[in-house]
């Protein structure tokens, strides 16, 4: 009798192991996504500028996803860390060194340094409170940057940023060739790291907190400390996004700290869907392309149509893109209907380019 | 000094009329309506259009601004907002931002992007002095009108059946329905009135706050601050928060002009850290 | 006599969990029914289902010819249900008087009648809901349901957590409402003996289903049934 | 190491693919990127520029220096980041040879690096901070500079009886410039600025600043706030009764913007401003300009932004005429240097040393002329250079 | 011979003037199957909240294995072995069964701060999860998201999550609440099979469950301990009967 039970248990354990192995495995859709992103470098040399902007936007959204999608903190103040990262790397290039990788590191540190104390302000209160506190912190930093014009250049923007060639070889050209490759690689590394983090015990404890903070504390998870940790990590991400912006544009204005930046980041993430890391990418891609298309059709009134799209999007259900991706992903992983699969892949390929 | 206080009071009262509708929306339906400022803008444009282009007396345009935006608010509630009550805050934020975009671009298209300048009738211009305090006629008018509105709102809330039904719905929506209060109707009406008040506030404020298509974006943050600092459990909270904000803003800019932009945000963060649900929230 | 309230095969619960399993019962006009059972057997869920605050899983509710099954709660109130929720549900930012006048509907139960029934409410008419004692809140909750002039009153544990002397007072009032004024009612109670004394019919729920149904008086004397379904002493 | 060289090779190849500007052929049009704020905080500038462009093309046609001139108008949303990205795309994808527009200083500065690196002439239509010109050797300006105007006011005021000032400026680059240069010149001419107030750019209410200014009891206020805010400022000034208290307002032209002047109404009457252009400037060039502008834009009134935009386009056309359609950065800028134009605002020229505009600055007073409000010029400082660049 | 694992000393909680818990001194012995009963509003919830650290007591202390844990936070108490389940399921809606259990086990093993290593790499974690799955009859639904489970399975997972914490003391708050009749037997038998060395405090209204499961019963009335004894003693106690049957004055 024991052996029957044991047999059953070992069968279960096998099943459990198979579930576990599924985690962290790259789906075909994911791989395809990256292949297309890399291919875009070769095939669309004229679009590198907007692609760079999309990638930086996506990193900002990714940093918000870490706190919102994985820990359930809504924020309208991610620009605080983004902007501080941008200024940190800009100032570094002016006063110390123009080496880009050092700039990224310093910016990550600066972002984390701002995020850490801020996170303690977010431990209490509901959605609205958190929105307003983060917004307030970003607004205060914006004002400080405005006042400290001796350091930041104030409203005129920080002048004189000069970034050394990457690895001493690759100049940041005005076509964005280096910029796109560079930011794409950074995005890839950050996403890889985020994948590790979200699949780690730490990452799962965040998901637990997001889903049910009451139960999370009842199974022994130190909720507050985890929130502080992830907010700080997200601050580092946002800081890196800011530094990438500085380095690829070689210019910073106060807008890096603006409410608009935070709101756009949140909006893009929400459009793309939270809690699966790629939401920011999908959202940034869709948002930028739509905005670009609309504003070239009607430069003065594109906001009208963007607004209409947003409303339609919410009313018809925000889960749609996520569901679509899931179903595409499922179909690609189990290619049973070759005829239909082709259609899907083709349609999919058309989109992100 | 007292002149300044009075200015701050007027400014605060204006903020209150502008944002009280939002407080009710948030408290009653737990709905984050970032498009509240769009209604204020609509009211402002109604007034400017009527006084400047069609020569309608300013005072007459005020109730019209209220009515027009209230009707617009009511219609939008029935057509769109009601679909979003059950959705998440993020959906609501995205949706109402979409509305703001439409409003901004739509007004730009219809009215042009320039600042609209309201021509006040002569009797609201100028200044008088009472006991050594110089008081602007229009600011005095604002204080009186907004004060009366605040009192009227308080009376409606406190002494009418509608008011008590509204408070009951905010207190406990479930039980309210269970004792026969039509919460949905109450909400639609409240939403319309709140929008109307925003419209009226926009009309009154066009003179002081300025009016251009970016109005809803510029002032969205102010409304949210009033609501989050004041809390949503009563009208007193937002009123006190508005006046506090108005006075602090004016005094701050007078005495420490260089800190002008900071003050409200520092107050905001401080209040919310100490009292996450606002100054006047009930102890949970 | 035609039934006032007729429940047929009613199943309901919260979310996915089914709490009530195919409950059927009928109440004649003027009848008061005691709804008994241990904690957690679904008594409150039954009342909540009648007022429309649970998820409907099956069955029908009919009140005086009107089909309530799919109605919104506020419509059910119009159709004639007066609900006294568990834990009273007093609106805390309304005064005592406002709690009553905000919902009152025309009929014989008026504000004045309420003050006559519960003189203490008149004394405290200007106080806010959150300034009342438990007993006063309960009186107010009953008054608030009565001024709806309902066809049937649903009382959910009206004496829960109250001091004995207040319990006496409340039960006396309930007796007047159902006995002297002939109000139909379903009363959920834990104090079985006391409530059986003032009701006509009794129903015992057990695990979401009706386990016993009969005359209150008969049940009051049926110690075995009482202790089987309600007591701690037997098994 | 091999990886690196492969990458370098790839980048070089790409650069060649995209960057190699094909040899200019006669039939190739000269493309001009117009980056202006059609949305956002500075959209009224964008509107005026767009209108001026319409009027200019309608009167001057689309040919200059024997070539087709093609304008590509883009909205930067008043955001410098956008301005930069859009300009980059215009340069790299659309292959524009000239960039123009730039509704405020930050957007102009954001593009300076690009202009420098890609050797693209950048013709500034509005941005007025002095320092911009140093940011790129391909920068040209047809608007005005803040010190140009502020120093003229600083010179005029003490000569005409107002010596004790409080300055009220918006808290951003141009505001600080105005404050600094006004104070500098007025102090050199025997006046004082007893208090300097900075007003947040997104400021809804001037009451506290006005009160503060009044409490300092100056003879006059020196004011610089952006268009639009100026109207609110003047209204609140009158509302406080400061007009009756004997305190004068002497302001930068933005405060009594011609575009809005009519709707500002009576509070504006009598306000003295210094500026480069007034809609009722009395000259045949201006009459023609105003007429063309109104005709093409439903009677809209041009302001100094429109005039500056018009002149920028004129400068581009005239320079192309001179270079026979050659729009290469160095050639173009060299040709533009010293260019003299009979502008609607009076004679202007491009300073060969600074590439900045040299123009007459007028002192004006708001008056009612034929039922409409205008800035009537009453004193001219001729051929003023940017004092900050000297 | 019987060691006390959990003990409260004069535990008191007041909300304003209201005494929610009055001077409760309660002992839970090692390996106990102890039930806490009492009418609605008797303060059972407040008592649990005091034990688990959701509320801070106004007076008195909570001791776990002889150590004072009154000042410890919720998660600290859990890490020391004081674990609870909830009356209303509190699951991680977005995670599946295996993930939920794995994260609890990781947390228990002190791995919760590891942020670069995969969550499923701990040695033996698969076997442990498999054990829990079969102990609680969750094998058939192991890869389903918690929110999609049938109610009875959710209830079992609710308990399994607590057991995965390897508790010394387990507080079961109405474990059978809302479970459909068909699944009831399973829940009860799973409860009966909980490890013997775990001390269990059961809060329950279902007297069948109480009598089948517990060997000792405490009765809480109006925030104070009203009676305590073996199942037999309590079931015969007239005063307890009256509390539950009501009508104390008339009986």
Automatic annotation (TrEMBL), chain B:
Gene Ontology cellular-component terms listed: plasma membrane
CDD domains given in the database record: TM_PBP1_LivH_like (cd06582)
Topology in the lipid bilayer: Multi-pass membrane protein
Compartment(s) of residence: Cell membrane
TM segment ranges: 12-34, 54-81, 93-112, 132-158, 179-200, 220-247, 254-274
GO molecular function, one term: transmembrane transporter activity
Keywords: Amino-acid transport, Cell membrane, Membrane, Transmembrane, Transmembrane helix, Transport
GO biological process: amino acid transport
InterPro entries: ABC_transp_permease (IPR001851), BCAA_transport_permease (IPR052157)
Pfam families given in the database record: BPD_transp_2
Protein family membership: Belongs to the binding-protein-dependent transport system permease family. LivHM subfamily.
Record protein name field: Amino acid/amide ABC transporter membrane protein 1 (HAAT family)
Species annotation: Neorhizobium alkalisoli
Lineage start: Bacteria, Pseudomonadati, Pseudomonadota, Alphaproteobacteria, Hyphomicrobiales
From TrEMBL, chain C:
Residues making up the signal peptide according to the UniProt record: none
Record keywords: Amino-acid transport, ATP-binding, Nucleotide-binding, Transport
One Gene Ontology molecular-function label: ATP hydrolysis activity
Entry protein name: Amino acid/amide ABC transporter ATP-binding protein 2 (HAAT family)
Gene Ontology biological process terms in this record: L-amino acid transport
Family (UniProt): Belongs to the ABC transporter superfamily.
InterPro entries: AAA+_ATPase, ABC_transporter-like_ATP-bd, ABC_transporter-like_CS, BCAA_Transport_ATP-bd_LivF, P-loop_NTPase
A Pfam family matched in the record: ABC_tran
Transmembrane helix recorded as keyword: no
Domain ABC transporter: 5-232
UniProtKB/TrEMBL annotation, chain D:
Signal peptide positions on this chain: 1-26
SUPFAM superfamilies, sorted: Periplasmic binding protein-like I (SSF53822)
GO biological process: amino acid transport
Domain of life of the organism encoding this protein: Bacteria
Domain spans labelled Leucine-binding protein: 29-367
Keywords, in A-Z order: Amino-acid transport, Signal, Transport
InterPro entries: BCAA_transport, Leu-bd, Peripla_BP_I
Family: Belongs to the leucine-binding protein family.
Name this polypeptide is given: Amino acid/amide ABC transporter substrate-binding protein (HAAT family)
Organism of origin: Neorhizobium alkalisoli
Lineage, opening ranks: Bacteria, Pseudomonadati, Pseudomonadota, Alphaproteobacteria, Hyphomicrobiales
From TrEMBL, chain E:
Domain ABC transporter: 6-247
One GO MF term: ATP binding
Taxonomy, superkingdom: Bacteria
CC annotations in GO: plasma membrane
Gene3D superfamilies documented for this protein: P-loop containing nucleotide triphosphate hydrolases (3.40.50.300)
Alphabetically ordered keywords of this record: ATP-binding, Nucleotide-binding, Transport
SUPFAM superfamilies per record: P-loop containing nucleoside triphosphate hydrolases
InterPro entries xrefs: AAA+_ATPase (IPR003593), ABC_AA/LPS_Transport (IPR051120), ABC_transporter-like_ATP-bd (IPR003439), BCA_ABC_TP_C (IPR032823), P-loop_NTPase (IPR027417)
PANTHER family reported for this sequence: ABC TRANSPORTER ATP-BINDING PROTEIN (PTHR45772:SF2), CONSERVED COMPONENT OF ABC TRANSPORTER FOR NATURAL AMINO ACIDS-RELATED (PTHR45772)
Protein name from the UniProt record: Amino acid/amide ABC transporter ATP-binding protein 1 (HAAT family)
Organism expressing this protein natively: Neorhizobium alkalisoli
Lineage: Bacteria, Pseudomonadati, Pseudomonadota, Alphaproteobacteria, Hyphomicrobiales
């Amino acid at each position: 009798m024991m052996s029957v039970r044991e047999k059953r248990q070992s069968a279960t354990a096998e099943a459990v192991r198979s579930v576990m192995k599924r985690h962290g495995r790259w789906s075909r859709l994911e791989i395809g996504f990256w292949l297309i992103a890399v291919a875009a470098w070769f095939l669309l040399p004229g679009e590198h500028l907007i692609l760079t902007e999309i990638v930086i936007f996506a990193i900002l959204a990714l940093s918000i996803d870490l706190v919102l999608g994985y820990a359930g903190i809504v924020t309208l103040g991610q620009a605080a860390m983004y902007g501080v990262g941008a200024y940190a790397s800009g100032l570094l290039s002016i006063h110390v060194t123009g080496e880009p990788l050092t700039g990224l590191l310093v910016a990550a540190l600066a972002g984390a340094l701002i995020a850490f104390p801020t996170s303690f302000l977010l431990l209490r209160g509901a959605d609205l409170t958190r929105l307003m506190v983060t917004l307030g912190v970003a607004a205060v930093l914006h004002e400080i940057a405005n006042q400290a014009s001796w350091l930041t250049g104030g409203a005129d923007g920080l002048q004189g940023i000069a970034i050394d060639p990457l690895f001493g070889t690759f100049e940041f050209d005005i076509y964005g060739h280096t910029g796109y490759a560079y930011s794409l690689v950074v995005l890839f590394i950050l996403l890889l790291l985020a994948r590790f983090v979200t699949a780690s015990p730490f990452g799962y404890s965040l998901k637990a907190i997001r889903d049910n903070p009451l139960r999370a504390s009842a199974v022994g998870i130190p909720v507050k400390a985890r929130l502080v940790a992830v907010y700080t990590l997200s601050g580092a991400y946002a800081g890196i996004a800011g530094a990438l912006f500085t380095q690829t544009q070689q210019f910073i204005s106060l807008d890096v700290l603006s409410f608009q930046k935070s709101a756009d980041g949140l909006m893009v993430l929400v459009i793309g869907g939270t809690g699966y890391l790629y939401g920011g990418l999908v959202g940034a891609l869709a948002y930028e392309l739509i905005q670009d298309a609309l504003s070239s059709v009607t430069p003065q009134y594109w906001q009208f149509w963007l607004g209409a799209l947003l409303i339609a999007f919410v009313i018809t259900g925000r889960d749609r893109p996520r569901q679509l991706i899931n179903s595409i992903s499922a179909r690609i992983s189990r290619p049973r209907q070759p005829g239909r699969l082709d259609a899907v892949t083709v349609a999919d390929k058309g989109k992100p380019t | 000094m007292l002149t300044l206080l009075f200015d701050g009071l007027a400014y605060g009262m204006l903020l209150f009329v502008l944002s009280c509708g939002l407080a009710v929306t948030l408290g009653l339906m737990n709905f984050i309506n970032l498009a509240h400022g769009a209604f204020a803008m609509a009211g402002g444009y109604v007034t400017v259009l009527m006084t400047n282009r069609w020569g309608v007396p300013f005072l007459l345009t005020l109730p019209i601004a209220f009515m027009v935006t209230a009707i617009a608010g009511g219609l939008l509630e029935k057509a769109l907002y009601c679909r979003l009550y059950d959705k998440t805050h993020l959906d609501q934020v995205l949706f109402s931002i979409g509305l703001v975009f439409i409003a901004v671009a739509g007004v730009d298209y219809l009215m042009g992007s320039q600042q609209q300048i309201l021509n006040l009738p002569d009797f609201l211009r100028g200044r008088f002095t009472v006991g050594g305090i110089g008081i602007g006629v229009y600011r005095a008018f604002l204080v009186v009108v907004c004060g009366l509105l605040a009192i009227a709102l308080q009376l409606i809330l406190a002494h009418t059946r509608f008011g008590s039904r509204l408070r009951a719905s905010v207190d406990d929506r479930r039980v309210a329905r269970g004792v026969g209060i039509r919460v949905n109707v109450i909400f639609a009406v409240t939403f319309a009135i709140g929008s109307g008040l925003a419209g009226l506030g926009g009309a009154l404020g066009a003179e002081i706050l300025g009016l251009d298509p970016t109005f809803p974006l510029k002032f969205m943050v102010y409304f949210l601050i009033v609501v989050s600092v004041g809390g949503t459990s009563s009208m007193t909270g937002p009123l006190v928060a508005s006046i506090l904000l108005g006075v602090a803003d004016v005094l701050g800019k007078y005495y420490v002009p260089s800190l002008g932009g900071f003050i409200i945000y520092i107050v905001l963060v401080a209040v919310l850290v100490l009292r996450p649900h606002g100054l006047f929230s009930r102890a949970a | 006599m035609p039934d006032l309230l007729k429940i047929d095969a009613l199943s309901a619960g919260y979310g996915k969990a089914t709490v009530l399993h195919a409950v059927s019962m009928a109440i004649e006009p003027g009848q008061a029914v005691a709804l008994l059972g241990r904690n957690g057997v679904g008594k409150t869920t039954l009342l909540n289902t009648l007022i429309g605050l649970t998820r409907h899983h099956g069955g029908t509710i009919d009140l005086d010819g009107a089909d309530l099954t799919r109605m919104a709660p506020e419509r059910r109130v119009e159709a004639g249900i007066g609900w006294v929720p568990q834990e009273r549900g007093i609106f805390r930012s309304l005064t005592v008087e406002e709690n009553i006048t905000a919902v009152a509907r025309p009929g014989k139960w008026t504000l004045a009648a309420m003050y006559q029934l519960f003189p203490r409410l008149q004394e405290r008419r200007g106080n806010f809901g959150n300034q009342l004692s438990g007993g006063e809140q309960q009186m107010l909750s009953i008054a608030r349901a009565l001024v709806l002039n309902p066809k049937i009153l649903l009382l959910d544990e009206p004496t829960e957590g109250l001091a004995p002397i207040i319990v006496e007072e409340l039960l006396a009032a309930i007796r007047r409402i159902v006995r002297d004024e002939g109000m139909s009612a379903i009363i959920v109670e834990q104090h079985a003996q006391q409530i059986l004394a003032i009701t006509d019919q009794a129903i015992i729920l057990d695990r979401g289903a009706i386990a016993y149904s009969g005359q209150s008086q008969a049940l009051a004397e049926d110690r075995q049934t009482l202790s089987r379904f309600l007591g701690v002493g037997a098994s | 190491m091999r990886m690196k060289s492969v990458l370098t090779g790839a980048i070089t190849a790409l650069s060649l693919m995209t960057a190699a500007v094909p040899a200019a052929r006669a039939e190739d049009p000269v493309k001009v990127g117009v980056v202006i704020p059609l949305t956002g905080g500075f959209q009224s500038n964008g509107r005026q520029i767009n209108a001026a462009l319409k009027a200019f093309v309608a009167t001057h046609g689309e040919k200059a220096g024997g070539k087709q001139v093609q304008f590509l108008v883009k909205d930067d949303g008043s955001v410098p980041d956008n301005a930069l990205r859009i300009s980059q795309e215009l340069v790299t994808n659309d292959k524009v040879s000239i960039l123009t527009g730039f509704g405020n200083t930050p957007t102009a500065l954001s593009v300076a690096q690009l202009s420098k690196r890609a050797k693209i002439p950048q013709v500034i239509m509005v941005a007025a901070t002095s320092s911009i010109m140093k940011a790129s050797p391909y920068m040209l300006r047809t608007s005005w500079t803040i010190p140009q105007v502020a120093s003229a006011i600083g010179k005029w005021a003490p000569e005409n009886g107002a010596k004790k000032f409080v300055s009220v400026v918006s808290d951003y680059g141009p505001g600080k410039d105005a404050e600094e240069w006004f104070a500098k010149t007025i102090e050199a001419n025997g006046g004082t600025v007893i208090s300097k107030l900075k007003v947040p750019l997104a400021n809804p209410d001037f009451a506290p600043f006005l009160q503060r200014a009044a409490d300092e009891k100056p003879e006059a206020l020196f004011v610089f706030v952006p268009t639009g805010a100026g109207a609110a400022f003047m209204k609140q000034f009158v509302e406080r009764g400061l007009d009756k208290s004997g305190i004068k307002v002497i302001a930068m032209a933005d405060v009594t913007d011609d575009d809005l002047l009519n709707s500002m109404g009576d509070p504006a009457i009598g306000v003295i401003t210094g500026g480069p252009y007034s809609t009722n400037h009395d000259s045949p060039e201006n009459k023609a300009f105003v007429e063309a502008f109104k005709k093409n834009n439903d009677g809209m009134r041009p302001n100094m932004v429109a005039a500056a935009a018009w002149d920028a386009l004129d400068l581009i056309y005239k320079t192309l005429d001179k270079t026979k359609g050659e729009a290469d950065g160095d050639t173009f800028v060299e040709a533009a240097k010293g260019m003299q134009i009979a502008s609607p605002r009076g004679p202007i020229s491009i300073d060969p040393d600074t590439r900045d505009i040299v123009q007459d600055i007028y002192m004006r007073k708001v008056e009612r002329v034929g039922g409409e409000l205008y800035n009537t010029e009453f004193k001219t400082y001729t051929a003023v250079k940017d004092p900050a660049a000297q | 011979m019987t060691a006390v694992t959990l003990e409260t000393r004069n535990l008191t909680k007041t909300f304003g003037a209201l005494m929610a818990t009055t001077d409760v001194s309660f002992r839970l012995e090692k390996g106990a199957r102890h039930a806490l009963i009492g009418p609605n509003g008797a303060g059972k919830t407040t008592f649990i909240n005091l034990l688990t650290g959701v509320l801070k007591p106004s007076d008195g202390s909570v001791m776990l294995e002889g150590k004072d844990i009154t000042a410890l936070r919720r998660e600290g108490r859990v890490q020391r072995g004081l674990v609870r389940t909830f009356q209303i399921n509190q699951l991680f809606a977005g995670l599946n069964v295996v993930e939920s259990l794995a994260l609890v086990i990781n947390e228990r093993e002190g791995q919760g701060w590891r942020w670069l290593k995969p969550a499923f790499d701990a040695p033996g974690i698969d076997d442990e999860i498999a054990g829990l799955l079969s102990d609680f009859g969750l094998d058939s639904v192991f890869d389903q998201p918690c929110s999609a489970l049938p109610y009875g399975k959710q209830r079992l997972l609710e308990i399994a999550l607590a057991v995965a914490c390897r508790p010394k003391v387990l507080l079961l708050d109405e474990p059978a609440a809302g479970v459909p009749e068909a699944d009831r037997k399973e829940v009860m038998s799973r409860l009966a099979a909980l490890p013997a060395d775990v001390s269990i405090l059961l809060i329950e209204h279902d007297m069948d469950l109480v009598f089948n499961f517990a060997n000792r019963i405490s009765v809480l009335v109006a925030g104070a301990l009203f009676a305590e004894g073996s199942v037999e003693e309590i079931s015969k106690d007239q005063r307890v009967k009256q509390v539950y049957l009501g009508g104390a004055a008339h009986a």
